[in-house]
Amino acid sequence: MPDSRPNVLVLMCDQFRADALSCLGHPLARTPNLDRLAARAVRFTNAFTQSPVCAPTRHSLNTGLYPHAHGVVSNSARPRGELFTLAHALSPLGYRCFQLGHMHWTDPDRPTGYEPNASTPDLWRQSQPQEVLARRQWECQDITRRTTAGPNPFGAERFWGHHVAANAVRLIESAAGQNRPFLCWASFTEPHPPFYPPRDFYERIDPSRIVLPAQPPADAPPPHERILQMRRQWQHLTAVELKQILAGYYGLVALADSFCGTVLDALDRLGVRDRTLVVFTSDHGDQMGEHGLFLKFVMREASVRVPLLIDAPGRGAGVRDELVEHVDVFPAICELLGAEIPSHVQGRSLAGLVDGTAAPADWRDAVFSREADKRMVRTRRWKLNTYGGEAGELFDLEADPDEFVNRLGDPQCAEVVRTLMDRLRRWETA
Question: Which one-letter DSSP state was computed for residue 153?
Answer without folding.
Answer: S
